[in-house]
Amino acid sequence: MRAPVSAAVAISVGLIVLVGYFFPLEAYNLPAVRSLLIEWGVILAGVATLVAILNLLGVHWRKLSASQNPDYNSLLVLLAFLVTFVAGLWLGAAHPQYQKVVTMIQAPIEASLMGLAAVVLLFACIRLVSHRKGWMGVVFLVSAVIFLALGSGLLPSQGDSLLADVTAFIERLPVAGSRGLLIGIALGSLTAGLRILMGADRPYSG
Amino acid sequence: MADIRCPMCSKTNPSEAELCRFCGARLVPLAPSSQPPPAGQNDSGGDVEDWLSSLRSGASPFESTGEGSRDEAEASRQSEEFPDWLSRIQPAEQPAEEALPAASDTLSDALFSSPADAIGGESLPEWLADLSSLAATSAAAEEQPSPEAELPPAPTEAEPASLDWLSSLAATSAAEEQPSPEAELPPTPTEAEPASLDWLSSLAATSAAEEQPAPEAELPPTPTEAEPASLDWLSSISHEESQPSKPDLTSQTDFPDWLNELGQKPTQPGNEIPVWGAEPSSSLAEDLSIEPEAQPAEMLPDWLKAMPRPAGEALPEIPSESDLAWLSQFASEVQSAPTESSVPPTIIEPPAPQQMAAAEEISAAAQPALELPQSTPSSAEPEAVSEAPLPTPSEPELPDWLSEFKKTGTPAVEPAFDESIAEQAVTAEEPSSAFAEPASDLPEWLRKIKTSAADQSSLISVPPLLSVESTPLQGETMPGDVTQLGGDLPDWLTHPEQAGQAEGDLSAELAPAELPNWVEAMRPAQAGAAGSLAIDEVDNRVEKSGPLAGLQGVLPIQGMPAAPAKARVYGSDLHLSDRQRQNLNLLQEVMAEETRPFPVLTRRGDAPRMLFRLLISLMLILAFVLWTVSGFEFTSPPAASPQMQTLFQRIDRLTPGAPVLLAVEYEGGLSGEMRLASLSLVRHLMEKNLRLVSLSTLPVGPALAADLVQLAQIGVNYSLAEQFTNLGYLAGGSTSLAELANSPLPRVFPTALDGKPFQAQKALQGISQLRDFSAVLILTDSPDTARAWIEQVQTPMQRNAGGIRQPFYVISSAQAAPLVLPYLDSGQVQGLVAGLAGSAAYEAAAQRSGPASLFWGAYQLGVIFSILILLAGGLIQAAASLSRRPGKRG
């Protein structure tokens, strides 16, 4: 679409949905329009997912069919996809056997990788001390140790002892930071939405 | 009006021009003084000067009738000095293409003025006609033809009057030698002596002896009263007035009448008068348009007065026989003159006697035309009006004043110039005997002419056509050599150096200007100024050494370069400064370092690293084995917090069979933690016999939800087929959550994950919207997903019929718990189970053991070991960095 037309469509749709949220005027059937526009968005999002899958297949196919240095791992990807696709069509998504693809293959692999990530982070923390000499490295190391200990229950967070109070206080520190992050995220989301409504940002123009 | 030919460059110029527009030479001579003649000049002198006055007026005898008018005031003044018969003497019509220059007009006018015009246009008196015959006779008797000047033959009675004799007079006078200092009176013409016009040349010679010659036209001096003898010629002519003879010139239609008359009438002895003295005819006077000049009667000689005049005009007095004695003197004075052409172009020599005789012969033969003398096509001479080629007469004796021109005029004069002068008709020579006067008696106008000429020669330093620096080679002529032009050139043309010297002398006499200081400051520094070389103007130092020893005024040796010495030999070595040397050394080091082989750094072996990794792995495996074998727990599981207690109680208070929405929003990577964290709660929901409906906005959500439910169902009497529905995947992310919150569920999920319609699901009985669920349990490992569910779903949910908004419970991982706690604190989330510890605490609240408590020991051992590794590694790294030397860095 041409830039002015796409901008006009995006702005108009956003304004309608936003106004429909603030002023659900049944007289103007605004909630229905808003719902309809949202449904269209959901459809487009679903189609975008299919497009992403097809794009991924295309990338791996190009890698596999490259004249110089073809990537044979893409063959595995394509085969796996093909098998999964065929199995899903054949068995169905609710079939327990088909779901084992996720629960028996994907989930364990990802979990293993996540476990390795924990070890990698552990090593990174150790090397941080040697690479970034200064107080920040030490502070990071100490904070990591404390919160690991708190989370593991090594330090008592309950009770009437001073340690419990200190532990409780320490456990509340991340909450303060998270609140600031959430406020910042909210404000950023609001600004991004307004910029799109005003036409300042056009992520859809390509 | 006819153009004027420049005497210098021979180029034509307009008649009104005074200076040549090509070379700058003067075309018009300086006008004579208008002052009255000096004292002493009586009437006779005034009569004699009548013709001189015509010279001053610049009247050309060859001018047409219409152009012969001059300034009457000036003419009247001049008429007091010169007799009318002289001033009115004018030749025939001047050719159109040629015109005498103004300088020559002054003299030639008087000379060539027709005697008939001088007397008012009447016919010539007989005495003039006799004079012409006498001149012709004497010209034939004398044997000194001027080879240069072609003097016209003397007109006779039978010979039409010719103006050639006038030009011959001029040539004769130019060729005459210097006469005696005394005034040479013209001989009195006698009856036997043919009228000779040599009297004019004698007059010129006489005046030349007395006067200083001027570079320009020099007119004969005005005769004075002290020289009555000079008027003898006039007196000799006067007796002839009784028998005026009019030459029969009527037959000559092309000539002035007076000339024609002169030629026709026979000359009588004693009555020979110059042709120009003859009584002019009236027609001649008209042709020549010579206006009779009003002269006081007392100024005119008697003979002029006796001359018949036209009606209304007074006749000029015809000179008596004694007055005309000078005419006879001319006859004797006619000699072969040297062929010098120093005569200025304006001077016209009187014809030689033999020329006059020849002229008479010619006139007697009734030549059809008497052409006016023509100048030869010389280079730079103003051409005379006369056209007739005259026989080359012998060069007459030049009067003194004419001979002076030889000295001061152009030294190198072409012979052709002399011929051209000789061809001129009327002499401009003064009647030497009659008009000679001492130098002191020069008229004022003559003195001014000389003065102006002298001044001009002194001021003008560089001639226009000459270059001071250029010197002609021997035998060659420079392009600007004006000497080749011929003629009498002024000094400033011929000798520019003299003029320059004169100018220098003049400038030396000038007082230096007093310049203000600011102007002096602007004076440019002159190269080689005196101060630059420090050379005194008066250098009395005598050089004592060197090749210039003994000389004075030599440049001082001191301060100058020493004696030539051997040139300094520059070696091939470069002379570098310290900075350059440092830079050079630096560059050399850089270049050497580039080419220097770097030693291969021996990397430390991977054994320590591998050993370290292996140690870590063994520790973790030991922890797992230790826990598994012994059931080691470092500490007891955490106790249930009040918040956890609340959560347990809320779920425990749910109505059995109530629908609970289970949103499985965690990925497969954190499924291990999430599964351990959510099993206890999901099992509690199953133990409460609640209907579980799961959905997910992640593609893997439905599969993980099914796995969770199946895992939680273990040991619980729960029918998944009837109490559990997996709605499947909801595409669109947060947008779909907004639709889920506002749209009916059947519209959002027409079918379940198994493909059966929404209404066919037993677990979805009585559920159409989200608010129909008793609780919403979000299982997520991402804070964004939790935020999206809270913002998009929890806010727009309406309260149920009981006025209670459905509770939101979140089961999150340990990494997302800090970002979900604010929502718990704000009341948007009613319960939070954070990771394994939370699940353990929930189990403690439920007072049952679950997987969380089972893996708590292992979890603690893993964390402990992690802490120990961090501490140990940090300490080791710190110690190593501190102990590392500075030089080994990098």
Q: How would you describe the oligomerization state of the chains in this entry?
A: heterodimer
Residue ranges of chain A: pLDDT <50 for 5 or more in a row? none
Given as residue ranges, the uncertain stretches of chain B (5+ residues, pLDDT < 50) are 37-46, 61-69, 93-122, 143-162, 177-196, 211-230, 240-253, 265-275, 277-296, 336-351, 366-394, 409-439, ...
**CA-atom Rg of chain B in angstroms:** 72 Å
Outline type of chain B: elongated
| Helix segment tally of chain B | 36
Strand-residue proportion of chain A: under 5%
Helix fraction of chain B, binned, reads: 40-55%
Proportion of helical residues of chain A? over 70%
Largest sheet of chain A: none
- Overall pLDDT confidence of chain A: 86
Give the strand order of the largest sheet of chain B, numbering strands 1, 2, ... along the chain.
Answer: 5-4-3-6-7-8
Total beta-strand segments of chain B = 8
Major sheet characteristics of chain B: 6 strands, parallel
User: How many extended strands of chain A?
Assistant: 0
Please render the helix and strand layout as text:
The complex is a heterodimer of chains A (206) and B (890).
Chain A: H1 3-22, H2 30-64, H3 73-91, H4 96-131, H5 135-151, H6 162-198
Helix pairs in contact in A: 1-2, 1-6, 2-3, 4-5
Chain B: E1 4-5, E2 12-13, H1 43-48, H2 50-57, H3 72-79, H4 84-87, H5 102-112, H6 115-118, H7 126-141, H8 164-175, H9 198-210, H10 232-238, H11 257-264, H12 282-288, H13 302-306, H14 325-333, H15 353-364, H16 400-408, H17 415-423, H18 432-435, H19 444-459, H20 491-494, H21 496-509, H22 517-521, H23 530-533, H24 578-595, H25 607-630, H26 642-652, E3 659-665, H27 671-687, E4 691-696, H28 701-713, H29 720-723, E5 724-729, H30 734-742, H31 745-748, E6 775-780, H32 783-794, E7 808-812, H33 817-826, E8 831-834, H34 835-846, H35 851-854, H36 856-883
Parallel strand pairs in B: 3-4, 3-6, 4-5, 6-7, 7-8
Antiparallel strand pairs in B: 1-2
